[in-house]
Amino acid sequence: MTIETKFESSPAFFEAKYQENTDPWDFSLSAYELGRYDAIINAISHRTYRRAFEPGCSIGVLTERLTAYCGTVDAIDFSPTAVVEAQRRCAHLLNVEIRCAALPDGVPVKNFDLLVLSEIGYYFTPQAWQQISSTLVDSIAQGATVLAAHWLGHSQDHCISGDEVHEILLAHPKLLVDHSERNQSMRLDRLVRL
User: Fold this and answer.
1) pTM (2 decimals)?
2) pLDDT by residue (tens digit) across 42-52?
3) Fewer CB within 10 Å: C terminus or N terminus of the chain?
């Protein structure tokens, strides 16, 4: 499947960023990023999960934290350099598998009960994001949790805004909003698969 993105959202663009700096968006130290990870963990930590899927895992900072609440975490990123860093970060964990793959073709065929969509949706056009998110939601079991968290700022490498990412998700007829929060920087929605 061919997915339309901006040049700034291409695999080559991201790989060049990670080769230049293994943490190009300061995921491991930025107050915003660490606060976003805290909000995600707070939103999912009311229960445990059998199997989670995190596409666009980058260098694995959130992936490492998800493993405390999940029997298994499957994570993908399309940057080989980011995947190597994520695998290094999570090497001490037995319940995580991190592969180099891209959406929509890299989705593992497994029965997930947690889908984490963190800072990924705005790299796709509205049509592509609608198609990809529908495919992901349709593939998970009834009762599964979808956690979406996106920055609300503007960047040249984004095709759509964080709010548009969430509005497309919320339009899916098999998703029900279970929890929402937003601040000046970020929007977070926890959804239940009907």
Assistant:
1) 0.93
2) 999 999 999 99
3) N
